[in-house]
What does this fold into?
Amino acid sequence: MVNSAFQDTSDIIAFKPDRIGHALLLTDAMYDELESSTEKIPIESCPTSNVMTLELATHYEGDLVHGLRRHPRLKKWLDSDYPISISTDDPGIFNTNSTIELVLLVKAFQMEAPWQILSMVMNSIGHTFESNDFKVKLQEAMMNHIQKMSFAPFWKSF
It folds into this structure.
């Protein structure tokens, strides 16, 4: 069964989908293949769901921040600037939303600069299953909102 799962994952990577959901249990070789590709396949990560379904917070009395630090790939994706979208699945079950997921990242990985999260959010717009026109309009709307914030000078160069 494990060999079948690895083969399925390899087949999915070879197919080059528009996005890969979760991608939690990639082998180092699979990750290296994704990382070295000229056309990177974005990863959609749902931190709370990942922590809960993999029981990463079990030894920390359910603390999501500590559990997130045990995530098998997330820190590596963040450190390598790999294209990633932070999302949430089953927000009603996990009592979360997109903002909470981003705050968890900030706390778990001590992300001090606002541009780290904002850059990730802006880049993730490109990973959506929408038309290019819609993506451009959404990015422009986000830029207009961001420019009103105190770190606007950074975004003028984005």
User: Anything to note?
Assistant: The chain is about 55% helix and 5% strand. The beta strands are 20-21, 43-45, 84-86. Residues 132-147 form the longest helix (16 residues).
